[in-house]
Amino acid sequence: MKYDTVVIGGGLAGLICGIRLTQSGLSCTIVSAGQNALHFSSGSLDLLTQLPNGHVVEKPLTALDELSEQAPTHPYSRLGKLEVIKLTHLAETLLQQSGMKLKGSSDENHYRITPLGHKRSTWLSPEFVPTVGLHQKMNKGKIAVVGIEGFLDFQPQMVSAELQREGIPASAHYVHLPLLDRLRENPSEFRAINVARWLDRPENMAQIVAEIAPLIADADTIFMPACIGLDSEEPLLELQKQLGKPIYLLPTLPPSLLGIRLHETLLRQFRRQGGIIMPGDKVTSVNCVGSCIESVTTRNHGDISLKASQFVLATGSFFNNGLVAEFDRVYEPLMDLDLCHIPPRAQWTNKEFFASQPYMTFGVQTDQQLRAQKDGQPIENLYVAGAVLGGFDPLTEGCGAGVSLISGLHAAGEIIRYFEQQKALQAEVTP
Ligand SMILES: Cc1cc2nc3c(=O)[nH]c(=O)nc-3n(C[C@H](O)[C@H](O)[C@H](O)COP(=O)(O)OP(=O)(O)OC[C@H]3O[C@@H](n4cnc5c(N)ncnc54)[C@H](O)[C@@H]3O)c2cc1C
C-alpha cells in the first residue's frame, strides 16, 4: 500500500495534518492505535495562557516574542512568530470548515467555566460551553445549575457556590430521571457518554422536559453537565426549545462528550476529503533506508507494509505511549528518537504539586523544521507534531491544543511544499 503520506497517530495533531494534506489533494492514511487526548479533554482549545515565568497571557499572538526569549526550545519559538501566526489563523479556518462551531479568537483569550465553576483561560470553546470575556462579568441572569441524580462526575452545588462567590446569582438542583435507573444500578456505567445515549433518544425528551421544567422556573439560564448531544446538537437544541431557556454545557470527567464531538467532527472531515483512517491499528516498526523512512509495518497489516514519501509522527505524550518512562529512563518507543534534554531522575518532578512539572516538557528533539532526529542526524522525511514534541509544558503554559494544531499544520505545509517541488522538477525534465 502506497500513499503520499502516512501519519502515525490520529489525535488532534495527526487529524489536522491529515485534513490539510487531503485538502491539498495528497493521499494520506492515518494509523491510530487507540483513544486520544481529545476523549479526555475539556473540548476547549488552548493556544497560550501563561509564560514560563508565570506571567498571564491575554493576547497569545503578541506574547510570542517574550515566549521565544524565555523558552527558545518551545515549538512556537522554533517555528518563529510569523509561521505561528499564519498557522493559528489557518487552524481557526480549518476547524470552522470542518463543521466545528467554536467561539473565541487568537486576538484575545477568554474564560471558560470549568466543571467546578472556576474560570479558566483558553483560546476556542465549543458553542454551548459558558464563556466570559477576560475583563467582563458573566451576564446570563439567574443561573440554574442542574445536575443529574446519581451522576457523581458533576456536582451542581460546587458550581453554583463558585458562581455565587463571583457575585453571579446561581442555584443548584438535581433532576431525577427514571429513564436513567438502568445506569444507576451500575455506577461505573454512569458516565457522560452513557447518559447522553439515553438523553439523546427523541422518545425520552418529554420525560426530561417534565422533570427539569419545575426546577428552572425562576431561572434565566441553565447550566448542565455535557451529557446530551453526543452525535449531533439536535437533542440539545430541542431541549432548549422546549424549556424556553438557553442551556450551556459544562465539561465532565472523562470520557468527555465535548472532546469526542470535536474528534468525530475532524475525523468526518478527513474522511470526506478522501483520507484513510486505520483505527485500532498500531505502527510497530519503521523501515529506514539511509536517513529516510521507506515504509512502516503495522500490527493489523502484518507483512503488508505502508509505503510513503513522507511520514508524520503524532503519537502523543506519555498519556498515549508516544513517550515511555521507566524508573530512570525516558524514550520514544517506535524509533528511539533523540529526545530534548532530560535532567537527572531527581529533577523530573517538582515537589510543589501545583508548580510546572519538568517531565511535562520531555519529548522528541527536532530541527527547526520539526523533523525528527536520531543520533544527532535528521530523518529527512519524518516530521513530528503534537504532544510527542519536547520543549513545552501544555498544562502550565496552556498551549496543548495550539501546539498540536500548529505543529500538525506546519508538517502538512512542509509536505505540500515537497510535493510541489517534486511536481515542478518533473515538469522540467518532461519534454
Ligand atoms: C487528559 C488530557 C486532557 C487534556 N485536555 C486538554 C484541553 O482541555 N485543552 C487543551 O488545549 N489541551 C488539552 N490537553 C493537551 C493535549 O495534549 C493536546 O490538546 C492534544 O489533544 C494532543 O494531541 P496529539 O494528537 O498530539 O496526541 P494524542 O491526542 O495523545 O494522540 C496520539 C494518538 O497516537 C496514537 N498512537 C500512539 N502510538 C501509536 C503507534 N505506534 N501507532 C499508531 N498510533 C499510535 C495514540 O493511540 C493516540 O490516538 C490534554 C491532555 C491530556 C493528556
UniProtKB/TrEMBL annotation:
Q: Which domain of life is it from?
A: Bacteria
Q: What's its catalytic activity?
A: a quinone + sn-glycerol 3-phosphate = dihydroxyacetone phosphate + a quinol
Keyword annotations for this protein? Answer: Flavoprotein, FMN, Oxidoreductase
Gene3D superfamilies registered for this protein in UniProt: FAD/NAD(P)-binding domain
A Pfam family reported for this protein in Swiss-Prot or TrEMBL: FAD_binding_2
Q: What is its EC number?
A: 1.1.5.3
Tell me which InterPro entries the record gives. FAD-dep_OxRdtase_2_FAD-bd, FAD/NAD-bd_sf, G3P_DH_GlpB_su
Q: Name one GO molecular function term.
A: glycerol-3-phosphate dehydrogenase (quinone) activity
Tell me the enzyme class: oxidoreductase
List the cofactors. FMN
What does this protein's UniProt record list under function?
Conversion of glycerol 3-phosphate to dihydroxyacetone. Uses fumarate or nitrate as electron acceptor.
As for family, the record states:
Belongs to the carotenoid/retinoid oxidoreductase family. Belongs to the anaerobic G-3-P dehydrogenase subunit B family.
Q: How does it assemble?
A: Composed of a catalytic GlpA/B dimer and of membrane bound GlpC.
Protein name, please? Anaerobic glycerol-3-phosphate dehydrogenase subunit B
Gene from which the chain derives: glpB
